[in-house]
Design brief:
This is Methyltransferase domain-containing protein. The protein is an alpha/beta fold and 430 residues long. The protein contains 15 helices and 15 strands. The strands form two sheets. Strands 1-7-8-6-5-2-3-4 form an eight-stranded mixed β-sheet, sandwiched between helices. Strands 11-10-9-12-13-15-14 form a seven-stranded mixed β-sheet, with helices on both faces.
């Protein structure tokens, strides 16, 4: 029985208002694109690949299989010939996109039997040092695509931002499918030149878009191809679930200068501190805590507004730096990680939690919010501030992180500051 296909028009309302994929942010960075079969990358993310390449990103392509099982009835000789054809088609498609020099890693794994664990082991060395990876969506209804998505999630370093592109989702799933992760979606819109280049690239895969052996129907027929000619490509951010490992921050503070975010000198950090201090509703506080204090740049200024300030950080190097920064202020700095009570002691009338909550796994974040509610006395204030970008190591972005506290009835919002760089809220403990 032929599977009913979802028309492109059904998806169109869901594409309205999607945030744009930030191509410029990856200029000069290494971006690895993973495909289960030759043509996946072109159909699902060809325009985005081209845009990244033209913006100066160092794009590499990894193709897990040669797609030799596209027509299951073929014998071994015919399958080998199809594999060779599809390799040539991929080279022609890259040329059509102006990416003939892009490195291609062909893994030659079995088509239609892709093993996520085996693929993950092969991908691990290829993903080292990549700023971002684009891979098939792990929820895609094609099993090889799903396996490729799972493999990338397992193999990618925590420092690599993961993006997924759907393919067979478009024709095979319904637009109201609850499993499609729209909150994590970003759109890339192709201009006229990019659309023409993508059409030429897609046309290179004649073995898939034209009649099959003995007149078999195309694998990717006109009704399916229509989904990839809308002028819009969609990718889903695939966030880490487990949160940033503690060792990651030890590694960062071990870099030259011991200030991985330039907290003492950058205009972003200096401005954020000034805004945060200006947003405090009270001139002076009795007892404050600042977990994840980092180098202590904010701690030193905050100490002047507090009778007692307990600062802490999970990274030993940060604790040493912060202790030096607050010398003579009366503030104390200890080593402690959220949600430990040592990081948020009882009896607070102010808690300042900046640039750390989005790194926490969901269960740790929930426990931390509970600890904040326990440590801050009724009527006390809580300040949360986070960069509006999305660190690779973070399970969620600033907006999603702040919503956890904003939706908690134990807190009432007093101050909201939103600009292009950071999000800041002052909450009062109810």
């Amino acid at each position: 029985m032929t599977r009913p296909l979802t028309p492109p028009a059904d998806w169109r309302p869901l594409l309205t208002g999607l945030g744009a994929f930030d191509v410029a942010a990856l200029a000069g960075e290494r971006v690895v694109v993973v495909a289960a079969h030759p043509d996946d990358e072109t159909l699902g993310a060809g325009g985005l690949m081209r845009a990244l390449h033209r913006a100066g990103a160092c794009v590499e392509l990894v193709v897990a299989t040669d797609g030799e099982a596209a027509f299951p009835a073929l014998d071994g000789t015919a399958r080998a010939a199809l594999a060779a054809t599809r390799r040539d088609e991929l080279d022609a498609a890259l040329d059509a996109h102006g990416m003939a020099g892009v490195p291609v890693h062909r893994l030659g794994m079995p088509d239609s039997a892709l093993d996520a664990d085996v693929l993950a082991a092969a991908l691990a060395p290829l993903l080292l040092g990549a700023e971002a990876v684009l891979a098939p969506w792990s929820g895609d209804p094609h099993p090889d695509h799903a396996a490729a998505g799972r493999a990338v999630a397992a193999a990618a370093p925590v420092t690599t931002t993961r993006w997924n592109y759907p393919i067979w989702m478009w024709p095979w799933l319904r637009a109201d499918d609850p499993d499609v992760p729209w909150p994590f979606a970003r759109a890339h819109h192709l201009d006229a030149d990019a659309r023409d280049a993508k059409r030429r690239a897609v046309a290179c895969f004649a073995s898939q878009t034209g009649p099959g052996p003995d007149g078999a129907a195309p694998v990717v027929g006109p009704e399916v191809l229509a989904h990839f000619d809308t002028g819009t490509e969609v990718v889903f951010r695939d966030p880490v679930a487990e949160g940033a490992p503690a060792g990651r921050f030890d590694d960062l503070y071990a870099t030259d200068g011991g200030d991985p975010w330039d907290t003492r000198t950058s205009f972003y950090e200096r401005r954020k501190r000034a805004v945060l201090l200006a947003c405090l509703p009270r001139e002076h506080y009795r007892h404050a805590a600042e977990p994840a204090c980092g180098t202590g740049a904010l701690t030193r200024e905050l100490a002047a507004r507090c009778d007692r300030l307990d600062a802490s950080d999970a990274a030993a190097a940060a604790v040493d730096l912060a202790r030096t920064a607050v010398e003579g202020t009366g503030a104390t700095v200890e080593r402690a990680a959220l949600p430990d009570a040592a990081a948020l002691p009882a009896g607070l009338d102010l808690a300042v939690v900046s640039e750390v909550l989005y790194y926490l796994a969901d269960d740790v974040l929930a426990a931390t919010v509970d600890r904040i509610a326990e440590a801050v006395e009724p009527g006390g204030d809580v300040v949360i501030a986070h960069w509006r970008g999305w660190p690779a190591e973070a399970p969620r972005d600033a907006a999603a992180t702040h919503r956890v506290l904003l939706d908690d009835p134990r807190f009432t919002a007093l101050v909201t500051h939103v600009d292009e760089e950071f999000l800041l809220h002052v909450l009062r403990r109810a």
